[in-house]
Amino acid sequence: MLQNTSFDGRFGMMPFFFCFGSMLFLPFHQGVLMAHAFTGTYGINYGRIADNIPPPESVVTLLKAARVKNIKIFDADHDVIQAFKGSGLQLVVGIGNEYLKDMSVNEERAMDWIKENVQAFLPGTHISGITIGNEVLGGSDQGLEEALLGAIKNVYSALSRLQLADVIEIWTPHSEAVFANSYPPSSCIFKESVLVYMKPILEFFSQHGSPFYVNAYPFLAYKSDPEHIDINYALFQSNSGIYDAKTNLHYDNMFDAMIDAAYAALETAGYNNMEVRVSETGWASNGDEDEAGATIHNARTYNLNLRKRLLKKKGTPLRPKKVVKAYIFALFNENLKPGPSSERHYGLFKADGSISYDIGFTGLRPSSASQSLASLKGLNARSWCKPYSKVVASCAIVLLLALLI
Q: What pLDDT is recorded for position 182?
């Protein structure tokens, strides 16, 4: 899903639950915290094309309460990066498409960007990755497609010169528009027009261990063809599924099928060992009249079942040992996003910080009287029980001794 004012890539395509209590002590390298780009299996996209969402400091509080460890933003806003300082959360920042052409021919431009937007905040803010562009390939800007590889190489070179290449992962998210077809999954290949740019990028990333990231939206597939796609298949609910005769594999949900389609395309291109991760996936809770499936019920069903699926830490039918990792889109409803109404209704949380629907997260403010009571009880428990727990325990021991005497 594009996060700038252009959203052609979204429509040109078709076919928070981690344990936060214990922190691992990680080794340092050149004064920078060694890190994996993705901890666990669940992450979230923090988009900010809105004028009514909470400030970054409140967002950090929200994310920590939700126990979401992995956060991806689409730029490198300094207020946001600073707000994550000391939070223990892993942040992926983004180089926008507007920088790619310049960076592709000027490594020093990439160096300046990294020094200003990444190095300056280390190690206080745990920046674990950089996305380079967003949904570039398969779009309508050939100049951007031609610039992407050069920008990737120059960003990596700059990171290497700063001795950060082994602690900050780089990648570029792709839309489904890079594929010629994706049904059944085993038949998926890259478009010929894309492959000329994709192949050298895959080669470079394979040399440095970067995954292939894809934006996978069963919602978009369903709303484009609701008469022929079973809504239950798209929502992880009980259904007959599909059978892939070539691989002899059965799929009971579209999300897994989309991931395995990407694996099939990579295999055909010669990159069997590259991991596929999901850079965006989500379901709109509202939309225009012609946007089938955009309801609160469906959005809750998809995101709740997706969360359960990721919690299982399992792979896909084609790659059962490759645990699926995904960034959910999105943290908030973004009221200034262009395009159809659905674009402004992907948030797990409303602009005021309350939950859009219940999938197990706690908002910044209650969304009902019962949630208010639950939050109050939780706050009371944390605020007075912890300081006086030792006193209560001591009194209990004294009382017990008195009874024994």
A: 86
What angle (nearest 5°) sits at the alpha carbon of residue 39, between those of residues 36 and 41? Answer: 135
Write out the two tokens for 245: 């005769």
Residue type, 208: H
- Residue 275 annotated in active site: no
Distant-in-sequence, close-in-space partners of 23: CB < 8 Å, separation ≥ 6: 88
User: Using an 8 Å Cβ cutoff, are 301 and 237 in contact?
Assistant: yes
- What does the pLDDT look like over 249-293, one tens digit per residue? 999 999 999 999 999 999 999 999 999 999 999 999 999 999 999
What is the distance, to the nearest Å, from the Cα of residue 207 to the centroid of all Cα atoms in its chain? 24
DSSP string, 237-281: -S---EEETTTTEEES-HHHHHHHHHHHHHHHHT-TTPPEEEEEE
Read off the pLDDT band of 362 (50, 70, 90): confident
* DSSP bridge partners of 45: 72
Residue 140 has pLDDT above 80, yes or no: yes
Percent of the chain with pLDDT over 90: 80
pLDDT at residue 379, as a whole number: 36
Identify which has the larger pLDDT, 23 or 81: 81
Catalytic residue among 135, 145, 291, 334: 135
Residue 146 among the catalytic residues: no
**Is the Cα dihedral 359, 361, 364, 368 positive or negative?**
positive
Catalytic residue among 280, 291, 334, 343: 280
The H or E element spanning position 213 is strand 212-215
**Cα separation, 375 vs 369, whole angstroms:** 10
SS3 of 70, please? strand
